[in-house]
Design brief:
By secondary structure, the protein is mainly alpha-helical. The protein folds into four domains: 185 residues, Up-down Bundle (Growth Hormone, Chain: A), CATH 1.20.1250; 43 residues; 221 residues, Growth Hormone, Chain: A, CATH 1.20.1250; 78 residues, no CATH class. It contains 26 helices and three strands. It is a multi-pass membrane protein. It comes from Sinocyclocheilus anshuiensis. This is Proton myo-inositol cotransporter.
Length: 613
């Protein structure tokens, strides 16, 4: 028995010695790499990748301390994403009611949509400075307060100028929230939950868009004040987030950056459920100290542009964000109800509920993307997504093209002296009549056949009636005629709806989240914040460009021409992804930077050859 115990003890001691040798070997390996690798980023990456098993085990035990509190933090943070989605999505249905009640021109419709995006672009840049100065918690409180103020302004607006002010206010909140929420969630999350929790923000954005479309549908039955409820209900989640963050802590990483070590340790211990956080605390502290050393000299953007691998990574990151917007996603989300009405859906309520179906498709397939990203990989998922997006835009354009080719002719010319100077009476088809925002289509029906149709000027007081003739205000029902503004009667509306659903089914899993995911991976540590800020700025700028020009683009190129243009841009994006985007699935961060050591379009051939080695 004694000898057996002696052998057991001897075996345990041998095992411990072997373990110590492994740990010492690991540490020597790290030190050797530090002496060989010159870039600050690689030093940081090796520090993170070659932690000893003892440290990993200890951190793992800490991270599992209190997941419920971490989920609570993620939930209240992601309400900012929900508000982002709600305030960008609710305008789709509200616009159908607003353009009738306030007689909004195409320019004013585009302004009400794009002013929010433009304000978000400005405040997102300012948000970086505010985050560094006041912290993540204060910025989220500020964003929720701005959301609340914007919702109140919109709900009491009595003219389009006040509406514009409210939409601008909401945009300021969106910009701050869009850049602060992911950072806060990432900094408070344990490593094994970080990816899952950060994606909650994306899910809340698409969920907010879906809820907004349902709210649009519910209140579309109130033709005069329904839009006030649509736009004003954003106050509820904004107030909930504000109240929640009064009791939630600041990011421990930000506290450490500001030198508040005592509170940083207390907050970290609270987040992790009160268990020992010494190892994780020291890891964060040492990481921050190394980042200060790694910052180097000179502006970071200049260093990115003059160092070839980071310059190429920046081109790829900004290119992905650009093609995400140029493929028309926010045209579809902002104007989905209007697009459906343009395709021939005559009833406002029906157009709004069909837009809700498209928003649900976006939410559902975003979940699919979360499941696929680590199984299929970033490159394949992005390629399949953008190619499917291009094909879907062709289907959407085909629906409008078929409607245009089957456009009812103008067969009735009223003999009214007041119309002689109107350009509306010169049009021979409903399609050309519809493209003029000052004209509408007045027609009768014999079963499904359009009869006695005419193109008439719109009443200056309301787009719901013609300025004169059979479709003037109060005469339509008695004469059995119909008034169509901004659409033509057609049997091809279902093709447009199919195109919208296919578009979101392909876009949501890949081109929706992948530009953000890839940008979080391809930059070295010293360039990551600046690289992400630049790519996000490109995203917002292209967002403004697309949303501000869609209605005018449709008037110049026709509706099918506009969507064929978006499809062509998506195909151009496909070529860009094929030639420039390497696969990063399963790679450590320090293994990604060398992928950009070659010319961009050589990356594809390098990746393709490596798959056959």
């Amino acid at each position: 028995m004694i000898s057996r115990c002696f052998l057991c003890d001897l075996g345990d001691n041998v095992h411990k010695l072997q373990r110590m040798e492994e740990l010492i070997g690991d540490r020597r390996f790290v030190e050797d790499e530090r002496s060989l690798i010159k870039t600050p980023y690689d030093v940081q990456a090796n520090n993170q990748e070659h932690d000893s098993p003892t440290s990993t085990h200890q951190i793992g035990s800490v991270q599992h301390g209190s997941p419920c509190f971490v989920y609570t933090l993620a939930f209240f943070s992601a309400l900012g994403g929900f508000l982002f989605g709600y305030d960008t999505g609710v305008v789709s249905g509200a616009m159908l009611l607003l353009k009738r009640e306030m007689n909004l021109s195409s320019l004013w419709q585009e302004l009400l949509v794009s002013i929010t995006v433009g304000a978000a672009a400005v405040s997102s840049l300012a948000g970086g400075y505010l985050n560094g100065l006041y912290g993540r918690r204060i910025c989220i409180l500020l964003a929720s307060f701005i959301f609340s103020a914007g919702g109140i302004i919109l709900s009491v607006a009595h003219n389009k100028e006040v509406l514009l002010c409210g939409r601008l206010t909401v945009g300021l909140g969106i910009g701050i929230a869009s850049m602060t929420v992911p950072v806060y969630i990432a900094e408070v999350s344990p490593s094994e939950l970080r990816g899952q929790l950060v994606t909650i923000n994306t899910l809340f954005i698409t969920g907010g868009q879906f809820v907004a479309s349902v709210v649009d549908g519910v209140f579309s039955y109130l033709p005069h004040d329904g839009w006030r409820y649509m736009l004003g209900l954003s106050v509820v989640p904004a107030a909930l987030q504000f109240l929640g963050f009064l009791f939630l802590p600041e990011s421990p990483r930000w506290l450490l950056q500001k030198g508040d070590t005592q509170n940083a340790r207390l907050v970290l211990s609270r987040i992790r459920g009160g268990v020992n956080v010494d190892e994780e605390y020291e890891r964060i502290r040492s990481s921050i100290e190394e980042e200060k050393i790694d910052a180097g000299e000179g502006p970071v953007l200049w260093r990115i542009l003059t160092f070839a691998p980071t310059r190429r990574a920046l081109i790829v990151g900004c290119g992905l964000q650009m093609f995400q917007q140029l493929s028309g996603i926010n045209t579809v989300m902002y104007y989905s109800a209007t697009i459906l009405q343009m395709s021939g859906v005559q009833d406002d309520q029906m157009a709004i509920w069909l837009a809700a179906a498209t928003a649900f498709t976006n939410f559902l397939f975003t979940l699919v993307g979360v499941w696929l990203v680590d199984r299929v990989g970033r490159r394949k998922l992005t390629l399949g997504s953008i190619l499917g997006t291009a094909v879907s835009l062709m289907v959407l354009a085909a629906g409008f093209l078929l409607s245009a080719q089957a456009s009812p002719p103008v067969t009735f010319h009223p003999n009214d002296p007041s119309l002689h100077n109107s350009t509306c009476i010169t049009y021979g088809l409903c399609e050309s009549c519809m493209l003029n925002p000052d004209c509408g289509f007045c027609y009768g029906k014999n079963g499904t056949v359009v009869i006695e149709s005419s193109c008439m000027p719109v009443d200056a007081a309301s787009t719901e009636a013609a300025a004169a003739g059979r479709c003037s205000n109060g005469t339509q029902e008695s004469l059995g005629v119909f008034w169509a503004y901004n659409y033509c009667p057609t049997s091809y509306s279902w093709i447009v709806l199919l195109g919208l659903i296919l578009y979101l089914a392909f876009f949501a899993p890949g081109m929706g989240p992948m530009p953000w995911t890839v940008n979080s991976e391809i930059y070295p540590l010293w360039a990551r914040s600046t690289g992400n800020a630049c790519s996000a700025g490109v995203n917002w700028i292209c967002n403004v460009l697309v949303s501000l020009t869609f209605l005018h683009l449709a008037q110049c190129l026709t509706y099918y021409g506009a969507f064929f243009l978006y499809s062509s841009l998506a195909l151009l994006g496909f070529v860009f992804v094929v030639g420039c985007l390497p696969e990063t699935k399963g790679l450590r961060l320090e293994e990604i930077e060398p992928l950009f050591g070659r010319q961009l379009f050589d990356i594809f051939f390098l990746w393709h050859c490596s798959k056959h080695l």
